[in-house]
Amino acid sequence: MQASIVMLGSPPTHEATQYAASLAQLLAARLLPGTLADGPAGSTAPPRLAVQCPGTLAGGTRPLPACEASSASGALLLVLPRPPAEQLARQAQRMLQASTLPVLMVPSPDAGRMPPRRIALAAEGEPFVLAQGLRTMHALLLTLPTRLTVLHAQRPHALYSGADALHAVQSCGLALRHLTIDACDVPAPDPATGILAGVQQVGADLLVVPVRARSRWGPGFAGSVTARVLAQSPVPVLLLPVSSPHEERQVA
User: Fold this and answer.
1) Which residues pair with 78 in a beta bridge?
2) 24-70 pLDDT tens trace
3) Helices 85-98 and 225-232 meet at what angle, rounded to 10?
4) Is residue 230 a contact partner of residue 92, using CB atoms and an 8 Å limit?
């Protein structure tokens, strides 16, 4: 299946729509509309993603189930525009539960520079592996003249160091030989403050935040570091579903 960018959110702003269209053009991807729906009342099933793809009949469309959307090479979920603050955490968590695809949230009306020239990736140092997200990140890194900076919030008595954070990113498969990659330690009282300060410090125009399964399904997502960063980031944020290495081995 051709690489696709799935656009969610209605109605999208003009600025955010332009961002999505420009990204699709850069990545040679289709821009498709999609919907996200919860299950029946009282159901514990995860939300369902439906993507409107060209049908077999002229002008027709068909819903694409989340499992099929997840297999699309380089597919990317795109929320346009970023929801209001009171809806942001719930919307992000619902989307991360509905699919293993990465989720890109674009602030509005300032949708960020296109193409992004400097990507900041927040990493605490704990090892992680990418599945579907690896394809999307490779597409971004291979297509765009991009510099990748690993952001690490440097706190007293932290379990991991900035060197651990850089090693975790390199080990997960994002350390391409021709990619310019560096690390930035940001002294901060808490991770969210450090990440946001790092974005400003390195002049990033896209922020990537790995999101582990325990966060995607945990009840405390609304108060998590990810939710705080989403609510305050001045640039688009790409939420990247990841797993720990031992979780990936269990699945395999």
Assistant:
1) 7, 104
2) 888 888 888 888 877 666 566 778 887 776 653 444 445 555 445 54
3) 120
4) yes
